[in-house]
Specification:
The protein has 307 residues and is α/β, with parallel strands linked by helices. It has a six-stranded mixed beta sheet, with helices on both faces. β3, α13 and β4 form a beta-alpha-beta unit. It is globular, with a radius of gyration of 22 Å.
């Protein structure tokens, strides 16, 4: 197969799984592609922000569906979520070979790693480059860049830097106005920039770490219990931000609602060190696996006893 050149358009390509599933369902219901195209314009069935975006979604999704033998439709509609996503991914790869090279953006994996606290923190530290694995190897893709949110960030703030100076140290642009812009997004007012980082509250430190991740421009985020020390309003803001994040997010969290609304792939580290890995939501994972429900209840009860 002839190799295509990369383009900015290829990088911005989206998975559009929900839109793919909607078009497949409409075809199954007897609609033609022309009728679906008209619905995209007249009723904005893809909830696109502009007519141009709606047309782009329809054109791409229709092309992907046409690239497959149409006999796949009944198998798609009766399959589980993982099967449906596999069909959508195969269609994307068949329609545009460049899409395969940006699969980390396509799948947009957001993960929760089981109840083994030490195991998941160690895994995150290895992936972030802070620890070396005892055995085995891993390799990030050449187009990826990472940002890490540690469970215990105390070492990050054990210095006499002001907030502004601390964040400037991580900024690719050493401009005060540029840095203050990122602090402002995390609700740090102008005068807050001169506060010493070592005297910040737990919630303020979390906001600093999120500012650091934002200013890095990373497309792969690793977050170890990011909701600790946050109030409900801040958790909701972080939740919405991760849902909209176009890259990959690997995270662990004890907030059920946060996990359910953010994660689309669940990885659980079992007590024996083995791994369960499923492309699904958290609630669907618990509903489909009786033992997973029992492990979750046991863990919750144990944490309650410790409290």
């Amino acid at each position: 197969m002839e190799r295509k050149e990369y383009s900015a358009g290829a990088v911005k390509m989206s998975f559009w799984f929900i839109e793919f599933r909607k078009v497949v369902q409409l075809l199954h219901d007897g609609k033609s592609m022309d009728e679906i195209k008209e619905l995209a314009h007249s009723e904005n069935i893809f909830a696109a922000p502009t007519a141009l975006r709606s047309n782009q979604i329809y054109s791409t999704v229709a092309g992907r569906i046409r690239s497959l033998d149409q006999s796949f439709i009944p198998y798609f509609l009766t399959g589980d979520l993982a099967t449906q996503k596999l069909y959508a991914l195969i269609a994307a790869m068949a329609y545009d070979t460049l899409f395969f090279d940006f699969v980390y953006e396509v799948i947009r994996e957001k993960m929760i790693v089981g109840s083994n606290e030490l195991a998941k923190t160690t895994l995150f530290q290895i992936l972030a480059g802070e620890l070396e694995p005892d055995e085995g190897t891993y390799k990030w893709g050449i187009t990826t860049s990472q940002a890490y949110f540690p469970k215990d960030p105390a070492a990050e703030f054990d210095n006499d830097d002001t907030i502004a100076d601390w964040l400037t140290g991580y900024s690719p642009v050493k401009d005060a106005t540029y840095v203050r812009g990122f602090l402002g997004r995390m609700l740090f007012a102008g005068e807050d920039g001169v506060k010493k980082v070592k005297v910040l509250s737990g919630g303020e430190k979390v906001r600093c770490l999120l500012s650091k991740m934002m200013i890095s421009g990373a497309n792969c985020l690793i977050l170890d219990e990011p909701t600790n020390h946050l109030d409900m309003e801040s958790i909701t803001a972080l939740n919405n931000g991760l849902i909209k994040f176009p890259g990959v997010a690997l995270f662990a969290c004890h907030d059920h609602q946060f996990v359910q609304t953010t994660a689309n792939r669940i990885m659980e580290i079992l007590p024996d060190g083995s791994l369960i890995d499923k492309i699904t939501t958290y609630d669907e994972y618990l509903e489909s696996d009786e033992m997973a429900r029992k492990r979750t209840v046991y863990t919750a009860d144990r944490e309650g006893d410790e409290d």
